[in-house]
Amino acid sequence: MKKTVIAVFALFVIFSFGMTEAMAQAWTWSNPYPYIGATPLVKIAADPSTGSLYGIDSLGNSVMPALGTQVTGAAATAGTIPPVVDMAVGPTGIVYVIGTTAVGTWDPVGGIYDTTMTQPLIPTGDVGVYQSLAVAKDGTLNILYQRLTEQYILVGTPPVMAEQSVISFHPRTLNLRSKGNWVSVHIQLPGALDESLIDPDSIRITEIAVDGFTPKPAEIFIAPGAPWKVGLDDLGVQVMKVKFLRYNKKGGPEMDNQALIYQLESIMAGAHKGKYPVTLTIEGQLTTGEWFTGTATFKANVTRSSRK
After folding, report:
1. 3-state DSSP call for residue 268?
2. What architecture is the 166-302 domain classified under in CATH?
3. Are residues 168 and 282 in contact, defined by beta-carbon separation less than 8 angstroms?
4. Any long-range contacts for 98-105 (C-beta under 8 Å, 24+ apart)?
5. Is residue 237 helix, strand or coil?
6. What are 55's strand-pairing partners?
7. How far is it, in rounded angstroms, from Cα 139 to Cα 90?
8. Which of 50, 54, 87, 177 has fewest C-beta within 10 Å?
């Protein structure tokens, strides 16, 4: 049933990219962070790799904004765009815009503004305005909000699909002494979503959990230069096929952290011979801005006891 509706869905995406389903879904906005610096901000920017926030103050200085404890009693209010106050492009090419009273997206092809995304939380009964916009790590939005003599930073995270994706890992058993190039992961999105919507650069392993050991947070992206494609798996189901680095043949600590065997060995220090169940948490982003998540399982094969 899923693949019979993909063609219709793909046509819908082509003709209405700027008015995507993901944009109409719920963003999550935190309570406002008060800016407590001595000099007012006029512009903000964010690091897409780390999420660090920067700003320009009214004296023309570059600053790292000092933020206070989040305020309570905030609520979302409706507004309109245009006029546009600021804009920023997200990691998948979505153009985000702010007016003085609303946040939304802009379709450069059709010139259409869409404000159906969940609006930020602002102090209740407030009459302030949005002043500046920045896109941070993983498409998180940061907005500078001006209220009389007070300023706030509003932080919103993109929607995440409630239903998990089906993800499989290949090979089913990974020998920790293997020195091959890659391992493969197949991703099937829930419902009628087309796997061609996945941004491969966003796919990463975020946690490695080995039975009997402490789970380890991670940020392992698909292997640099490795091929990927959308195609049918052995059961005839459409999936996106990507590859992660199995073993770091080139050496160096930076790529070690991206190599799955290196990570498993660091987690399983002192492990005895045997096969250990492993669960990987994997997430990624669609070109519509929405995030997906899922888990993949396999067994790590220890052929001889490792050193502690």
Report:
1. coil
2. Sandwich (2.60)
3. no
4. 98/130, 98/132, 98/133, 98/143, 99/130, 100/129, 100/130, 101/77, 101/129, 101/130, 102/78, 102/130, 103/130, 103/133, 103/141, 103/143, 103/156, 104/23, 105/18, 105/20, 105/23
5. coil
6. 44, 63
7. 6
8. 50
Round to whole Å and give the CA distance between 253 and 256.
5
Q: Which of 98, 124, 139 is nearest to 291 (CA)?
A: 139
CA neighbor of 292 nearest in space, from 156, 193, 173: 193
Q: Where are the beta strands (DSSP E) in 158-222?
A: 166-170, 173-175, 182-188, 198-210, 216-221
Which residues partner with 113 through β-bridges? 106
Give 3-state DSSP helix, strand, coil % of the chain, rounded to 5. 10, 45, 45
Instruction: Tell me the pLDDT tens digit for each residue of 287-297.
Output: 888 899 999 99
Which residue do the tokens 């500046």 mark? 132
Q: Which residue has the tokens 């392993």?
A: 205
Residue 108, preceding bond cis, omega within 30 degrees?
no
Q: Domain ranges for the chain, please list them.
A: 26-157, 166-302
DSSP code for 222: P
Q: How many helices (H) and strands (E) does the chain have?
A: 4, 23
Query: Is 0.90 topped by the overall pTM?
Result: no
Residue with tokens 């406002």: 32
- C-alpha 168/C-alpha 280 separation (Å) is 10
Q: What is the pLDDT of residues 65-124, one digit of tens each?
A: 999 999 988 888 888 999 999 999 988 888 999 999 999 999 999 899 999 989 999 987
